[in-house]
Design brief:
Layout: H1 3-6, E1 13-17, H2 21-32, E2 36-40, E3 52-55, H3 57-65, E4 74-76, E5 79-84, E6 89-94, E7 102-105, H4 106-119, E8 123-125, E9 130-136, E10 139-144, E11 149-152, E12 155-157, H5 164-170, E13 176-188, E14 195-201, E15 204-211, E16 216-224, E17 236-237, H6 239-245, H7 253-258, E18 263-270, E19 284-286, H8 301-318, H9 323-351, H10 358-372, H11 376-379, H12 382-385
Helix pairs in contact: 2-4, 2-8, 3-8, 8-9
Length: 391
């Protein structure tokens, strides 16, 4: 990249709402092209809660373009194994090692991005819960709960599911309960291979993989049910509820669940992709979950946020004197791709939960396809993984 491109946004400033994956990546990407960046974060410290996530090659390319070694955030993943409820292997998808897939603790990814943002001299302000956002002729005005007011020519909404800026740009859109809930838990690691395993059963499935070199094991378990559960990551539940739902699962699942001491339950809600990502005048834009929350069944939430951030900064750098056109181009570039990924995640939820005679038929077809055309299953997702937003 030429020095001209690296300095394209020199003298420009942006204010980012949120210091999660989306916000910190946006800060790094904007600084990469020379813009000055301030970040408002409502928490008292940047200490991301949550558990595991997976970074696929499309996200890895963004990290590397921003000078971040993905090994700072996680461990290379060797494969994905699909198994039936008894633990029998249905198919194994061996993963290419360049640029690679990574198994990450969310806190480690956020930590790597925070270090990069601070190295790049992005300015982070904590304890800044946003109360109100207003667009002005000069840009945007942000008022926080502690009474401080911030003026900025460009406001970036990376403030997640309940984005304040999305309400201004796109209005309120009510999510709906999908009829699925998910538990997440971390247990001590067992030194297992760096492989993500999916155990599929009627109306439920469980995903598990090691973290931090095998020191921890991440568990996410999903059940279809009519009983509503609140949305959000941090609602404690009784581990016995999780064990009861997955009592019929074999292989290592029972032993893993016996070790669960703390578990969190959340309802899975489907949110529409925002219809309006920008204000049309170059003053504000959404990215990440603020624009397109997704169900977790393609492991692309963090990856889409990484892509969004680089795309937004790159488009602004390509047209530094025409921010309105740059942000419109960003939204036009991103919306079709994220809609397709969200739709694929929605479909995968059904594929993991087959009942009755459909399950063995589908599993048999997967085994046969894997034997006849190794790699074909992963190839169906090349449109996701081969994408390079940094090119």
């Amino acid at each position: 990249m030429s020095m001209t491109a690296r300095d394209a946004l020199a003298g420009r400033r942006a204010l980012v709402l949120g210091a999660g994956v989306a916000g910190l990546t946006a800060a790094c990407a904007l600084r990469h092209f020379g813009a000055g960046v301030d970040i408002l974060e409502q928490a008292p410290a940047i200490a991301e809660v949550g558990a595991g996530l997976q970074i696929s090659p499309n996200g890895v390319r963004v990290l590397r373009a921003l000078g971040i070694d993905p090994a700072e955030a996680g461990d290379p993943s060797a494969a994905v194994e699909l198994r039936d409820r008894e633990g029998r292997l249905v198919t194994r998808l061996d993963l290419p090692q360049s640029p690679g897939f990574y198994l990450c603790h969310r806190a480690d990814l956020v930590g790597a991005l925070e270090r990069a943002a601070r190295r790049a001299e992005a300015h982070v302000q904590l304890l800044q819960s946003v109360r109100e956002v207003a667009l002005t002729p000069q840009g945007a005005e942000v008022v926080t709960a502690v009474g401080s007011t911030h003026h900025t020519p460009l406001l970036i909404g990376a403030d997640g599911l309940h984005s304040v800026l999305r309400r201004v740009l796109d209005g309120g859109a009510e999510p709906f309960f999908t009829g699925q809930v998910a538990w997440r838990a971390l247990i001590p690691g067992d030194g297992g291979a760096p492989v993500a395993q999916v155990f599929m059963g009627p109306g439920r499935h469980l995903v598990s993989y090691p973290l931090r070199g095998g020191a921890l094991r991440n568990i996410v378990a999903v059940q279809e049910r009519t009983a509503w559960a609140a949305e959000g990551w941090n609602h404690p539940d009784d581990p016995d509820n999780l064990r009861e739902v997955f009592a019929g699962f074999g292989g290592p699942v029972r032993g893993w669940l016996d070790q669960v001491r703390a578990v969190y339950l959340w309802g899975l809600f489907r949110h529409p992709v925002a219809g309006q990502w920008t204000d049309g005048q170059g003053r504000a834009a959404l990215l990440g979950d603020a624009a397109h929350p997704t169900l977790p069944f393609m492991a692309q939430g963090a990856n889409m946020a990484l892509e969004d951030a680089f795309s937004l900064a790159r488009n602004l750098a390509a047209s530094p004197d025409a921010p309105a056109a740059a942000l419109r181009r960003y939204a036009t570039d991103r919306a079709p791709r994220v809609r397709a990924i969200v739709a694929k995640a929605n479909a995968n939820a059904r594929n993991y939960h087959l009942r009755g005679p459909l399950a063995p038929l589908a599993h048999g077809a997967l085994r046969l396809a894997s034997a006849l055309a190794p790699g074909a299953a992963l190839g169906r997702y090349r449109w996701i993984y081969d994408y390079d937003v940094t090119a």
